[in-house]
Amino acid sequence: MPVINMPLPRTSSPPSAKWIRWAVFLLSLPALLPLAGALIVPHLNNMVLTGFIEYDLPSYLAEGRAYFERGFHFTYGNPYAGYDTPAIYFQPQTLLLGLMQQLGLHPGVTFNCFGLLALFFAAAVAVLFYKEVVGVQTPAKKIGLVCFFWGGGVFTLVGLMLALARGAPLSSVWQFEPTWGWWMLNFGRNLVYPTEAYYHGVFLLSLLALIRRRLAWSLACAALLCCSHPFTGLTLILVLIAYSGVELTMRSGAVTLKFMLVAMLIAAAHIAYYMIWLNRFSDHRVLQAQWQKAWLYPPKVFVAALIIVGCLAIWRLARSSFHCLRDARTRLFAVWFLVVFALTQHNLIMRPLQPIHFAHGYDWMALFFLGAPVLIATLDFLLKISRPWVRMGALALLVGFFLLDNTAWLVKIAIHNEFMVSLTKNQSAALTWLSRNVRSGDMVVCQDGLISYLVSTYTPGRSWQGHEKNTPSIERRHDEVERVFNQGQVLPELKRHGVLYVSPAAWLPPAELSLQRRYENSEFSIWASP
Questions:
Q1: Residue 292 falls in which region: left (phi positive, over 0), alpha (psi -120 to 50) or beta
Q2: Which tens digits make up the pLDDT trace of 394-421?
Q3: Are 319 and 4 in contact (CB under 8 A)?
Q4: Would you list the DSSP string of 71-89?
Q5: Cα angle value 480/68/421 (rounded, 5°)
Q6: Residue 516 dihedral angles phi and psi, to the nearest 5°
Q7: pLDDT of 241-294, one tens digit each?
Q8: Helix H or strand E encompassing 424
Q9: Residues paired with 4 in a beta bridge
Q10: What is the DSSP string of 260-323?
Q11: CB 2 within 8 A of CB 138
Q12: CB-CB contact of 232 with 354 (8 Å)
């Protein structure tokens, strides 16, 4: 077995820019499989496509719309709360989505244009980061790049073995991944999800700038990510602070004291905004209580997610007797992993706030780069096997083992995605009417959960019950809507102009409301004040 204790060599003729562009393009293509399924499968099932591959995605467009509610503002109020909710939120990506919507495109088209930008941005940064750390000069390193993009864990292998042993259907193969794989516990999986692709791109760009000693750019990316997402922003800024502490203690020259102090200021501002200032507002406190979910990251999950890259990292550390940690880059990967892992296990010392949300493949990425020399040395060894069939078979087994999780998941999601947002023709027709007739200031009361949720995405109005996690007091709102359509009990605040009722076709409104039917199909009626 070849020597694997030394850092990867960084000297060789660089690949052409054209090669890198092709690598970015080709490695990005698998991420489009779920979108392709979302465009084809609804037609096959006589449904209407929306272009949204997952339930939460329409909410980002609703937030983008909210910047332009009654004139443009740099902050927005929760589009699933009342019109009197304070405008206290800001994210660069939702502002961009709001600006893109001003072009008048269909919401699904708008979001997927953003998704393509995010995908190729994240893929380009990932290739540059890999090139900087590992290199792409040899066949082994090029194969390693594929493993970085689309490698995973052993969820599929374990699920397949148990399904075969128990005689269970193949659909049970994915039962061991949390939320059927949508927590995206490796790098490539996150490229499927446009906002996560954007977060991962900025995260890697900040660390790439750090490695290249462009410290101001690293901090600028960290500040951008802190504005963009509470979990990922906190993760990155804590990585920068912890790494700065280690390097300043070792006097390596990798960072400066000024860098660490500015990072600490960004962290303080991040915590002050998300933990203190936002909680001054009652609407946000209600949401915060709804978001405090015990979505844990237990050993049975993180072991299956990280075991492949974890074994490579442990092998490298053990074979080098930890001497590899003398390299500043290797220390960065170790600190990166420890910070992420500590955040994912914060439930051990405090009330859990979605611990698994801190994972999202960031721990997987750190372990991959920590163990990359072992992977490249192993690939080099296999490529030197003299017999072609043995060589190709060994490479296929290793790379197939690495890529099995994502290959199986992508094919499954393209064919059957239970989280995809698609509409019946009657739902689509009712929503189309609403998009043409609802005005800012209107409130829509709807018993159909999907139409009710999509009102804030497709119209400038709001819904009494919208996104299941972002609507304040969603359970109470749901009960109020049910009483309207099942018992005819209407809240006083809904007895006003500008309220539209999307009801089952057979529903008749209480006489006290004096409503007129404005639209009807075989499934829904829409009623409004005269």
A1: beta
A2: 999 999 999 999 999 999 999 999 999 9
A3: yes
A4: S--SSB--TTS-TTS---B
A5: 55
A6: -120, 140
A7: 999 999 999 999 999 999 999 999 999 999 999 999 999 999 999 998 888 888
A8: none
A9: none
A10: HHHHHHHHHHHHIIIIIIGGGSHHHHHHHHHH-------HHHHHHHHHHHHHHHHHHHHHTTTG
A11: no
A12: no
The pLDDT of residue 6 is above 70: no
CB 404 within 8 A of CB 411: no
pLDDT for 16 beyond 80? no
d(CA 12, CA 338): 32
Query: In angstroms, rounded to a whole number, what is the distance separating the alpha carbons of residues 366 and 359?
Result: 11
Residue 190's nearest CA partner among 98, 305, 347 is 305
> What's the rounded Cα separation, in Å, for the pair 275 and 293?
16
Sheet with 462-463: list strands edge to edge: 462-463, 443-446, 499-504, 524-528, 516-520
Place of tokens 């979605």: 354
Q: Is there a contact between 221 and 259 (Cβ–Cβ < 8 Å)?
A: no
pLDDT at 4 over 50: no
Cα radius of gyration (the chain): 25
In the three-class reduction of DSSP (H, G, I as helix; E, B as strand; rest coil), residue 139 is classed as helix
User: Dihedral, CA atoms, 438, 442, 446, 452, nearest 10 degrees?
Assistant: 70
Residue 176 identity:
F
b (16+ CB within 10 A) / e for 376-401: bbbbbebeeeeeeeeeeebbeebbee
- pLDDT (mean) for 2-18: 54
What is the reported pTM? 0.94
Residue given tokens 């066949």 in the structure block: 139
- Sign of CA pseudo-dihedral 98, 103, 107, 108: negative
Beta strand 524-528 pairing with 499-504: antiparallel
**Cα–Cα nearest to 421, from 41, 125, 141, 93:** 41
Q: What sign does the dihedral 217-223-227-228 (CA atoms) show?
A: positive
